[in-house]
Every structure is written in C-alpha cells, then in structure tokens.
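Run log // design_07
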C-alpha cells in the first residue's frame, strides 16, 4: 500500500483524553462482538439482488454489514497504543496471528477464534511494518522517514540522521510474548514490503527479498546509496531489489548478499491516458531524476511486492508497471524470465500462483490503496486482478476479476492482498479490497472467474474518505483472518453453499500449517480423509462429471466403509477405488473422477 494521505504522519501516541475516547469505543465494540456474527447465508447459487453491499450505513465500529456465504466470527479492536493507526499485513505461527501496524506489531492468540486475545503489543513505529516469521525469527519492514533504530515514537526530524531505520528489523520470537529486537539491515530505499524465501538446498539460512519503493536515501545517511542511472553508477540503488541472507544460528550477522537488477532493459509500459490518475502522476513526479538517454523510456525501478513459490522454483513480482516472472532456483540470485504489461493496470501490487503452478494472478493497486476505485463509474478492468496461464514459463493473459459491488467515493477500494483457500481440485481465493470488503472467488477456469462469497461494511465516514477496510486476508488452519485497517482484527469462517459444500470445507480444514507467510506460498497437500473423497464427489455432482447413480453408490459405499475398521475398512476402500477408476474412463469429467478414485485408494492405504 502507498501510505494513505490521512496516515502520512509521525506514529501516534495518543493524549490522555484521546485514549479515554478510544477505550470507550473499544469497550463498546467488544460488547457488540457477539452481535457481529452474520447469519448463515442461503443456499442459492445466485447472489442476492439488489446487492446488499451497496448503500451500507457508515461508521467506525457501528457500520452496517452485508455478508453472503461467509460468517463473521469475531472482530477485535486494536489495543490503545495502536488504535487509530493503520493496521497492515499478517503472518502466522502456531496459534498466533502477527498483525503489523504503523506503530509496530501485535501478536494475537487466535486459538479461540470467537474471542482472540492479545498476547503482545510491541511499540516500534515505522511504515508499513509488514511482518513475516520464519522458525524463531520475526522480520518487520520499515520504509518511512520517521522510523528509528531504537523503536522510539518521537520520530526523526533531521533530513539526514543515523538514528533512522529504513530496511528490515529482525526479532528473536522464540518467546512470542517477549520478542527481542536483535538486528536490522539498512537498505537504500527502505523496505515497503519483503518476502521470506526458504531454500531447501540451504537449511542453515533464510533469505529475504526486499522491495523498497521510496526515494533513494542520502549517502551521507547510508554510505553507498546512489540515485544515478546504472550506466553512470554501476552501484545505483535503482532497478534492483536487495537479497538479504540471514544465518539462522546467527541472525545478527544478516546482510545483503546480492542486488539483482531484475528490471534492466524494461521500457515504460503502455498506459491509457485515463489510467494516469493523480496518484499515478504523483508517483512518477516523485521518481528520482533520470539523467542519460538510457533512462528516458525506462520501466519500473522497484517492485512493490514479490510472491515466491519455492515448490515450483518461481516467483511473481508485482513491479510498478509490470508483472514479472522470476526463476528462484538459486534463492540468493533470482533471475527475471518473463514480463507482462497491461495498459489497464496502473500499479502492479502483488501476485498469487495457482496451486499447480499453471496460472498466476496479479493485482492492481490503482491509486495506492488510498483512493476510491470501485465506484459505479470505474471500469471493471481498473484496480482489478489480471489472470494469466503459465505454459513453459510463459504468461498468457486470460481475464480480469474485480469485486463487483459498487462502492462510494468515501471508500478506498482496490485490489489488495489475499491467498488461496485449500479447497481440493479448485482454485478458490479470498482477497481484501480495502473498504470494498472481502471477496471470495473461483478462478479454476482462468477465463471465467466468479464470486462465491463476500463480506463488506459501510464506509468509515459518511462525509469524507477515511482509510479503512481489509488490508490483507488469508486462510489459516480452518479460518479466514483479515487485518482491518481501522477496525482491528476480523476472523471469518466459510459456511456451506451451492458453490462450496460442507465436505469441501472439511477437506480444506485438514490442511494445516505450523507457520504461514502468504508471500512465501506453500504447496497445498491434502491428507487422505473421508472428507477429501466426499469433496471430490460433491464436485463431480456439481459439474455433472459422473453419472448420478454412480455418485449415489459411491457415497453409500464410503459411508459403509467408514463404519468398518482395520483390514475390513481398507479392503472395502480398495475395492471401491478400483471400481471408481473403471467408471472414470467413461465419466464426463474423467480427470476428476480418477482423482476421486485415487483419493479413496490412498485413504484405504492410510487406514491399514
């Protein structure tokens, strides 16, 4: 997110009177928590009309809400020293959600989703305070000019200061209730976001890809920083990312080990004139000067965010005017192998791969997250997602997806952070759209994505645009967790519908993570279970992929096998698997029918 204008200020420590007001609001919001549970949506596959998200009443903690096929389990306001300050990204470890905030970060115990509890609030101001965790180490981004090395809240007033932190903070989070600030790595452009990258070939280290989007700092503040063109200074801070290597045994020795120039030779992307909104023009006006002919038509000089998928050795870089495909087989030295541009896109923001690596989705944060881009007058191609197929490591555009409900001019709304929901055999994603709320959509067919669930609130303020909404929302161990910019921490759960069956939800819940950083995308693997087999049966019924009598017989045989035990159960499941493979040969959806048969066979083997 580009820092919202309303939050572009030194980190806040509230006055006594203001704190009293905030505490009153928090108490009122907590008292309402039980009433925030949304009713179970109906089973109709068709969204309600007219769309109930349109025209919702405004309010900070009392805005009207609309939900379809998604239940709000709890909303927990930020603690006192973080209330009224922008909440940012999320990371997860064990039963904890770590939530970034421009004043530092919070650790929430979400083991009881209906009543999360605050484990730790750590005051350490710096925008954006994006967070990641790897084993016992917690990493936090700092980019703004007011972040201090000592975590002080007084800011940094001098233009050049050796007290300033712009880069990555490193904490030892062995004791999650008492994280210890142990090191930092300074960078020339700060860290707007960062991505943790683990390399199975290098178990002693973890890597961090740093995306810094601010101007280059003075060499008087950090020696070696240069804003000259690479042709004039080969050590220029432009047209590169930083790769930090962190030794797990000695994280205090973390350092930059490479600065890959993954933007070299890219030219300025094509743009429609109407895409050049005021925020985009301002970003371009604030770019460092580009002396030399080789800079006149140059492309982006930095990435906003990078999503890595170690299981397939690729990364997706959302980099200003381009979506990049990177080879990360050598984690310390990523290499650009593909690039796409789109004149409908203003500011490529983040990326998500399909689980099988055959597709990639990029988001467009048009307006930097502080502007309304979901009004009825805004085109569906603007501030949306762009979906591409990946064949032989080449990206081919297929379609756009955008949260479909018209929002007001008082609501910042644009595509932002999300993750896959582990529903087997499908690509289902949950995504935050700031004050456009949360949208869940299916993009299994990359040419025809469609919405299948949502939650939304009215504007924070009815009279003016005040930043709010879902910054990021991720599936984690059976629940959907959202960082709400102005309203705290939201937790949701899926409910069965015509688009998602209870068996699919139960199968998704069998996928468990010890830790999760959404920008280091994990390979989803489903353990053998009766829910998994039944999920595939539900999908075959939904798409008429197998004859109805065969589906009914398989369900009956599964139910019978579940009542058995030991060898008898394994034999029954093995026989059913063999029969299903035979029936799959003539099925309307043969690949999914064979997948079902294999899932039943795997279950029989697992239960021997």
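design_07 sequence
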């Amino acid at each position: 997110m580009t820092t919202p204008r309303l939050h572009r200020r030194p980190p806040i420590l509230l006055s006594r009177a203001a704190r009293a007001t905030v505490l009153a609001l928090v108490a009122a919001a907590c008292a309402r928590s039980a009433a925030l549970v949304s009713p179970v949506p109906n089973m109709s596959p068709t969204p309600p009309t007219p769309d109930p998200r349109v025209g919702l009443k405004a309010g900070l903690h009392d805005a009207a809400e609309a939900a379809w096929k998604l239940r709000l389990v709890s909303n927990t306001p930020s603690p006192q020293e973080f209330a009224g300050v922008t909440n940012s990204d999320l990371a997860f470890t064990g039963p904890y959600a770590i939530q970034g905030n421009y004043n530092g970060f919070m650790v929430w115990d979400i083991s009881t989703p209906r009543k999360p509890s605050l484990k730790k609030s750590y005051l350490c101001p710096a925008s954006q305070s994006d967070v990641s965790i790897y084993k016992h180490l917690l990493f936090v981004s700092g980019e703004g000019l007011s972040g201090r090395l000592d975590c002080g809240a007084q800011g940094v007033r001098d233009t050049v200061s050796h007290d300033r932190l712009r880069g990555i903070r490193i904490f030892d989070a062995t004791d999650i209730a008492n994280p210890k600030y142990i090191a930092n790595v300074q960078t020339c452009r700060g860290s707007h976001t960062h991505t943790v990258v683990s390399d199975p070939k290098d178990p002693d280290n973890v890597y961090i890809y740093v995306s810094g989007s601010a101007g280059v700092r003075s060499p008087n503040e950090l020696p070696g920083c240069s804003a000259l063109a690479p042709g004039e200074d080969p050590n220029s801070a432009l047209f590169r990312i930083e790769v930090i290597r962190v030794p797990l045994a000695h994280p205090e020795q973390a350092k930059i080990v490479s600065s890959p120039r993954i933007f070299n030779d890219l030219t300025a992307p094509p743009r429609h004139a109407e895409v050049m909104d005021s925020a985009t023009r301002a970003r371009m006006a604030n770019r460092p000067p580009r002396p030399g002919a080789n800079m006149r038509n140059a492309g982006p000089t930095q990435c906003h965010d990078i999503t890595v998928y170690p299981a397939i050795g690729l990364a997706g870089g959302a980099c200003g005017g381009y979506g990049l495909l990177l080879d990360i087989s050598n984690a310390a030295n990523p290499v650009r192998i593909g690039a796409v541009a789109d004149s409908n896109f203003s500011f490529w923001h983040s990326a998500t791969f399909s689980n099988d690596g055959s597709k990639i989705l990029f988001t467009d944060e048009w307006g930097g997250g502080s502007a309304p881009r979901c009004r009825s007058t805004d085109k569906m191609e603007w501030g949306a997602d762009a979906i591409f197929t990946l064949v032989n490591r080449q990206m081919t555009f297929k379609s756009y997806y955008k949260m479909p409900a018209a929002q007001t001019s008082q609501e910042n709304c644009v595509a932002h952070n999300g993750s896959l929901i582990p529903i087997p055999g499908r690509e289902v994603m949950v995504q935050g759209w700031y004050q456009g709320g949360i949208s869940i959509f299916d993009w299994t067919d990359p040419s025809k994505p469609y919405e299948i669930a949502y939650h939304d609130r009215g504007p924070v303020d009815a009279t003016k645009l005040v930043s709010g909404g879902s910054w990021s929302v991720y599936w984690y161990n059976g629940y959907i967790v959202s960082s709400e910019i102005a309203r705290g921490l939201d937790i949701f759960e899926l409910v069965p519908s015509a688009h998602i069956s209870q068996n699919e939800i139960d199968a998704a819940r069998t996928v468990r993570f010890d830790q999760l950083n959404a920008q280091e995308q994990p390979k989803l693997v489903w353990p053998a279970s009766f829910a998994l087999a039944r999920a595939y049966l539900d999908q075959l019924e939904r798409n008429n992929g197998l004859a109805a009598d065969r589906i009914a017989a398989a369900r009956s045989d599964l139910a019978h096998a579940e009542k058995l035990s030991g060898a008898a159960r394994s034999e029954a499941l093995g026989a059913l698997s063999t029969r299903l493979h035979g029936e799959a040969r003539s099925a309307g959806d043969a690949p999914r029918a064979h997948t079902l048969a294999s899932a039943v066979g795997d279950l029989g083997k697992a239960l021997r």
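The helical segments are 16-31, 278-285, 502-509, 530-542, 548-563, 566-584, 590-606.
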